[in-house]
Design brief:
The protein has about 375 residues and is α/β, with parallel strands linked by helices. The protein folds into 2 domains: about 170 residues, Glycogen Phosphorylase B (Rossmann fold, 3-Layer(aba) Sandwich); about 170 residues, Glycogen Phosphorylase B (Rossmann fold), CATH 3.40.50. It has 14 helices and 13 strands. A 7-stranded parallel sheet has the order 3-2-1-4-5-6-7. A 6-stranded parallel sheet has the order 10-9-8-11-12-13, with helices on both faces. Helix 6 packs across helix 12. The radius of gyration is 22 Å and the shape is globular. Pfam families: Glyco_transf_4 (PF13439), Glycos_transf_1 (PF00534). One of its GO terms (molecular function) is glycosyltransferase activity. InterPro entries: Glyco_trans_1, Glyco_trans_4-like_N, Glycosyltransferase_grp1.
Length: about 375
Amino acid sequence: MSTKRLAVVCNYVLRADRIGGMDRFFVTYDKAAKAKAYEVDWFFPDVVDKTFYEGVALFSAEGNSSVEAFFLNYLQENEKTYTALVTHFTELCSPFYKKAKVAGSIETIIAVDHNPRPLNGFPIKKRLKNRLKGYLHHKAIDRFIGVSSYTARNIVEDLGPVVAKKTGVIYNGIDTSVFKKRENQDLNPERKVQFVVVSHLRESKGIQDLIDALGYLSEAIKKRLHISIYGEGPLEEGLKQQARDNEVDRLLSFKGSSSGIPQLLADYEYLIQPTYMECFSLSILESLSANVPVITTTVGGNPEIIKEDVNGFLFQPKNKRALATIIEEVVNGGRKITEDTSALIEKEYSLDRMVAEHINLLD
């Protein structure tokens, strides 16, 4: 019996201070593929820390090239061949896929799309370019997988009807066992309502809108809330200055990145995610798993998981007054979530289910 060999190419940096849902998926998927008698090699643009990935065969471009270029070079220099190639966070329908298929004698290529679309869609030039790419390069990819129904629809919309029959959905899932669970949904009248943001600090995450929304609140409401922001990014200093300018900096604590999010979430009453772009947010799944409801926008796959007044509240992206209204009504008790939000995640969005469905694609 010939050896089955699998390559996984991920445009994702491995870091010690960010052991998140995708890291847990990658490690669990690696074990599951090996249980199916695959030898598995993983390719990343940079590997800052390998501790969590003990036993996983990691190859790093060390930031010197794109992970796709690094993988193609690896195939040529080492004369490697693979049974299957799976990609995550990479550009769809680029020439890379045909080059890889030929160079690695690859039988099956599966492209998993985690990439969100702009709030108002791509400009016409980009849309035409995407259609051309779909027409020219779709044959090299055997399956396109979106991490939400929204993503799968956009794959077909971007690349054209030629990819429709080989496009499917596998929802993101999380390891619910690592999350400390909040005991109940009751707000403690003796303390401030504690909100949390877990996000990369860039414009598309909309945290600047949250800071502006705080300015619409009455002083009485402001005294009864606090928001902790976990994450880092290019907008961090600008957000801090914006909070000072709006005189709401006392309401916010910037905590930086943390690998302890699974244990920290249960200390908060609500997650706020005012994002402009999303496919299917792991942060939302993680918050719900901790029995912490979510306040977020109607973009991407968010409405596929957040049900109004059941496990969270939705508002239109960039609608700062709507966000302010939700926060105010939550703080004063006018809106509340009473159901345990973790049950749905354990049933429908588990890591084991996600891994099993991805492994099934290899058969």
